Amino acid sequence: MTIQQVEDEIVEEFSLFDSWDDKYEYIIDLGKRLAPLDDKYRVDENKVRGCQSTVWLGAEYKEDGKIYFTADSDAIIVKGLISMLIRVLSGRTPDEIINAPLTFIQRIGMTTHLAQTRSNGLLSMVKQMKNYAVAFKIKNSQLQ
Amino acid sequence: MNVVADLQKGLDEVLDVYAIREQFPILKREVKGKPLVYLDNAATSQKPQVVIDALVNYYTNCNANIHRGIHTLAEEATAAFEATRDTVQKFIGAASREEIIFTRGTTEGINLVAYTWGRQNLHAGDEVIISGMEHHSNIVPWQIICEEKNAVLKVIPVDDNGELILEEFEKLLTEKTKIVSVVHVSNALGTVNPVKQIIDAAHAKGAVVLIDGAQSSVHLDINVQEMDCDFFAFSAHKLYGPTGVGALYGKKHILEAMPVFQGGGEMIKDVTFAKTTYNDLPYKYEAGTPNIADVVAFKAALDFMTETGMKKMRDYEHELLAYATEQLEQIEGLKIIGKAREKTSLISFVIDKVHPQDVGILLDNRGIAVRTGHHCAQTLMDRFCIPGTIRASFAIYNTKEEIDALVEGLKKAIKLLV
Lengths: 144, 418
Fold this sequence. Notes:
Structural class of chain A: mainly alpha
Shape of chain A: globular
Radius of gyration of chain A: 15 Å
Number of domains of chain B: 2
Strand content of chain A: 5-15%
Mean pLDDT of chain A: 88
Oligomer: heterodimer
Structural class of chain B: alpha/beta
Radius of gyration of chain B: 22 Å
């Protein structure tokens, strides 16, 4: 599936919920089910700024030329949001990540529903993931 | 007949919250499809219609630049602006109107003192004492000036109940102490500090005292002369007034001896390229065109409070605090941070296994506004080994029904999150 298709899939899933209560319940559930973060990523350099909660984001560039993200947060809703970002962006090439439109965040109403300060945290996470992609891309081009 | 009169008198002493609510138009709005429950009053209070009207009226009918104009509008605007100064003077019990300086708010008031009094009076090795429950606004300005002057910043520790440990304060006080700058009421815990005792002890050692009144001025009767503080800084927006304006009180002889803060118009007497002489108090510290409209509306807020009655408001707020404390304590896993003997209507708490931010988001989804995080008091959060709290702060327009809504919202949030 392309990034676009996964984004559409998430939007489709959210359209099934009638209320934000249900949407949050779903996001919380995603947060609870997010794969645990390897302790080696739980370091200060992996902390994402701009969040009220602490977010760690680890990224690994594997031989298949794709980036794999793992993350954790002490806040569960944030964790659920990260879980969705990982679903869309993990296992993609740097170029795919850099060019990902990520319209789903807006389409599920998250940007307008979350207070600005919190959606900033979400945007910082997106920015950090894209930064990783840019960094790996540059590193790659230097190796070649 | 006497019975009826007594009854009426009794009723007059009780705050009619529904009549109060009618005066705050924002309380009629909905958030996320639910009636707004605004419990973030320690961050900023909502504004009554009289304050909104004062702002609109100023721009509609008498906008002009103040003090210099010879025309009618300028005179009216000046009169309105200066009337606020008189009202502030009365409100905090200052000896003279010259002791009231308009600022952008508490933060600017503290910075003004740090940059003028501090720059003049602090020298290498001198000591500045603040407390462990300060807002960042009463930490950072002192850090900056202490670094510049090689002065030492000392901190009064806080005990487990969220009260200052006064015995430790006495030990910190020395002949080297030049200024003590402490918060009257903690924005993160609600603790009312024994400022009179602190001021007297500091004065005995020859130090001056600044009181950060950002949180106290809306809840307590302020009388700077009785308190005998040397400076008192507060903001209009915490006491039902507009944002972007506040006042700094300073004892006249201290203000007169202090160097100027910002240079510009209004604060001068004569300017030549060789030398500038400065204006008298309070204008010496009011460079540039001030925030006239908001200063004018500030008066409406103070009048609103005085007319409503400080005691009546305080009694009602205490009733809310007692009720909320009792209700919140019944929630399993909830722990109140800050159990000082004397508190204003503010409750900070944490919940087992739940991050404050998640609770804030879920409450917002029910139209309930609380604050989550470190409340600009990171050092205090570190003291309690927590990243932050959930803070519900109550104003005179809040009701017990709203506290019930908060409790209900918290229970639902916990169920979802745990």
